[in-house]
Amino acid sequence: MESPKTIEHEIGGVKNDALRFGLHGVKSDIVGSHPLESEYQSTRMRQEDMKRKILVNTYGSAFPLRMELDRQILSRKTMEAAKKQNRGFEDSKNGSADELKAVGEEISTLKTKIKKLESECETKDKEVKAAESNSLAFKNQSAGFLLEYDHLLEENQNLRNQLQSIDQSLPHSDGKKNM
Questions:
Q1: Where is mean pLDDT largest: 92-101, 137-146, 166-175?
Q2: CB 36 within 8 A of CB 12
Q3: Distances in whole angstroms, Cα of residue 61 to Cα of each of 52, 72, 122
Q4: How far apart are CA 39 and CA 46, in angstroms?
Q5: Among its keywords, does the record have Metal-binding (predicted)?
Q6: Whole-model pTM?
Q7: Which of 42, 59, 65, 80 could be disulfide-bonded to 13 (CB atoms 3.0-4.6 Å)?
């Protein structure tokens, strides 16, 4: 633990002891240090302390009276503010009952609209599902028709080929072809 680098002096009050603690302990006080400077500082401290004591004694007797007056003024202001706030609450309470009734009616109309929209949504969903199943059935039927058409085209081509081969094998007496 480090000891303090100042010692009390009988005449000048607190002084830095450069001989005892070396120049590093009093480095900041070497420049501009005057023998009466410490006396001046201690006198100034005593004067400030006396001023504080005078103010405490002066306001000490008047302080409770001042506090009571401040308390009364503050209570009057808060009472007025509380009355105004209470009137505002009463006015808003009356207005809020009407608003509450209007909001309740709006809620009931919105609930009926929601139910109506939900039923419409369900019918639209059913229509979409029916349309999808019809579309799938038409696709399957179309694929069947395409297969049938291809089969008929092939059969038609076979029949034409047979007819052509029959026509070529028959003698052409009159030179006309029957079609």
A1: 137-146
A2: yes
A3: 15, 19, 85
A4: 11
A5: no
A6: 0.34
A7: 42
> Between vectors from CA 100 to CA 96 and to CA 104, what angle results, nearest 5°?
170
Rounded to an integer, what distance in angstroms lies between the CA atom of residue 136 and that of residue 163?
40
Domain residue spans of the chain = 34-163
The answer to whether 13 and 42 have CB atoms below 8 angstroms apart is yes
Burial class for 21, CB neighbours closer than 10 Å (0-12, 13-18, 19+)? middle
Q: How far apart are CA 92 and CA 96, in angstroms?
A: 6
Q: What are the C-alpha distances in Å from 110 to residues 57, 114, 119?
A: 74, 6, 14
pLDDT of residue 70: 81
